[in-house]
Design goal:
There is one protein chain. The chain has one domain (6-79, 100-145): Lipocalin (Beta Barrel), CATH 2.40.128.680. It is built from two helices and nine strands, in the order βββββββββαα. It has helices at 128-144, 151-156; strands at 6-9, 15-16, 19-21, 42-43, 49-53, 56-64, 71-76, 102-110, 112-118. β4 (42-43) and β5 form a beta hairpin. Residues 89-98 have a biased composition (Acidic residues). Residues 78-105, 144-169 are annotated as: Disordered.
Amino acid sequence: MSQPILSLKPDESKSKAVANILPCRIHHDGPIEPTSTYWTPVATDDGTKLAYFRGRKLQGKVVKLPEDYRGVVVERIPEQDPKTAAEEPLGEDLDAEKEEAGSMKVTSEFDEMVVWGHETVVDASADPYVRSMEEWLQVADKTLRKNDTTEDDRNACPPPSPPSYNRYL
């Protein structure tokens, strides 16, 4: 049996979050406090969001995750005690590529995302992030629920028919 490549450790103090997909590149990947000085989105009358980031108007559309799914924000957990050469098992192939299992800590959860566009609301059918998320959810749903197939699913892709050997007789 293969070993897991990634393990997620729950954090009891995790908070509720909203994921924001911005149409820009930010060269920072750490925590920032306080965000309220430069990020204050507001809800509009038509159900969209409005914010200004670095002087640019952004309009956002809320995309909810399906009920059976949850989004998580994770943070890498540093390794506690890496194995030394003396602790390595004997007879192990030294040239073999080693798969390191990483550990991540869940810092917050979200059940919706806001996809932001410059000046206008993002078109869900044209936005690569929204489309890829929708496609991924469809694939994940089919994969995770492979035992719960419906008659339509079975007819959409019927199993191949067995080869016919009659012509060789």
